[in-house]
Amino acid sequence: MSQKIVLACDICKSRNYTTNKTEQERTNRLQINKYCKTCGIHTMHVETK
């Protein structure tokens, strides 16, 4: 079973992306380098609670 999570920009805290996380991946917080529309650059996006 997968869980829906939201990714937020590390700089401006804007919530830009959603993704799914599997049961095995739930122990660590997901961090992905993605493009932020608000900042206009690639930034680190982290999983929100």
Automatic annotation (TrEMBL):
Q: Which domain of life is it from?
A: Bacteria
InterPro entries, per the entry: Ribosomal_bL33, Ribosomal_bL33_sf, Ribosomal_zn-bd
Gene3D superfamilies, alphabetized? Ribosomal protein L33 (2.20.28.120)
Any one Gene Ontology biological process term? translation
Keywords on this record? Ribonucleoprotein, Ribosomal protein
Q: Which residues cross the membrane?
A: none
Q: Name one GO cellular component term.
A: ribonucleoprotein complex
One GO molecular-function annotation for this sequence?
structural constituent of ribosome
Family named by the database record: Belongs to the bacterial ribosomal protein bL33 family.
> By its UniProt entry, which HAMAP family does this protein fall under?
Ribosomal_bL33
What protein am I looking at? Large ribosomal subunit protein bL33
